[in-house]
Sequence to fold (485 residues):
Amino acid sequence: MRSLILIILIVSTIGCSKDIQADYSTNNNFQLVTDIETANPSIVDTGSSSSFNSISERYSSINETTSYYKGQEYFVNYLSKDELDSFGYFMDGINYRVFNRDLVYTDMNNDNLPDIFAFSTAFPPGNTYSYDTGRYFFLSDHLSSNNFISQPSQINFSGGRIFPNDFNNDGINEVLFNHHNGKMNWYNEQENIGGGVNFEIKKPRILSYTGILEVNQVGIEMDSHAGASGDVNNDGLVDFIQFPIPSEYNGMPNEMFAVTNLNQGGYSFNSVDMFNNTNFKEEWECGWNATAYDLFDINSDGYLDLLVGWWIGDFKGQSWSCDYTTNLNKPIILLGNGTGYYNTENSIILDETSLSDNLISASILGFGYTDYDFDGDIDIILTNTRDEPDGTFEAGTYYDNYYLLFFENIDNTNFIEITNEVIEGSYDQTRSHFGNFYSIRTVDIDGDGDFDIVPDQYANWGTIPYVDNLHWEKVGNKFIRRYSN
Fold:
């Protein structure tokens, strides 16, 4: 476990009611960084190191505008639980911890070295986690540096997704922070958390590092469980999608339908109804929610498609006639046309049998993309977690488990599930070595020239004995599960 040093500079600023205690590093090579959201400066180590060579799978030019590609461009491997725990710290009577789902690897300071950006969740004494606002966490050049900065945030609960991209077209990556800030406003019986608070549903944030950490609010006020970005209208600027998750604030429900945020330049976005000129919202007036959504050009026509899903397998929950979420119960691909508008009438459904045949109900957590058979098209991987109505963490039937699904691209219009044929060890709910994970990375983890499946953004707060180096090694046209104890 590496030793990390939290460095905070004592400073008095207008609007701050108290000073922040200093803890100076012995490394004198540092510079001042300011969080514009709360105007509390900190210090970050900027020591030099060798350049970085990406091990990511490569894609078409339009697919390399997506947050999926940007999320694995600087990925080497997931951090161990011990490493993630070492990012915890104590400040002003509150413990802060990093949930791996709220962490990304990218280059934010343009030195071609991987940085870590994360959200630190507050664990206030005597209260449920996130019942105080969290903090932003930034570690420059994490493969060689131990010094990180922590700066205040106005967000309580993440529960969405942090992902990198170049949103202002300056050649340097920023990160977009989607969150589910209103989650704790409801009591969750299966998790035994929430209730008794009224946290505001807020806009996403774009955070940049250009000598200072700047926070820009973008999009619309919406709680989300995921996030996606890419150039949806092919104008050379990176746009992003917001898709809702059930939530409420002040007794009013979260948004019920997705929006496309079209980049107007800089950090200015035009939020448009992606279902405009269709009757979708009238037909499904109760809305459409999702636990996972992503942008990728699946059919190789040069336009980014939108993959969306929540339930998959043998759905056992309640459904309503006006709710698209509980009537779909499958992942869907909304085919793009270069405008940012989408239509369920121009879509592809992904049908599976591995879960349904075994009467397993699951939630979709993320999507991955690879050309496993070298035929020039994009095949799809789903990371899912078993999610039964009466499931529990302890039984591995409510999160704390993983189920991979693999869909082969036949002719860019048909996808066939072939999980059992191509993945050995595609699932586990024994809690013996790993739990659920929200992202898939297709990278050459073993340096043999092909691309393996590696989990990322895993649920590291459980009691599972998380193994190091879990991955599915590409061997011929198969993926074989490997890990180290």
About this structure: Residues 1-36, 38-48 have pLDDT under 50 and may be disordered. The longest strand covers residues 94-106. The CA atoms of residues 187 and 195 lie 5 Å apart.
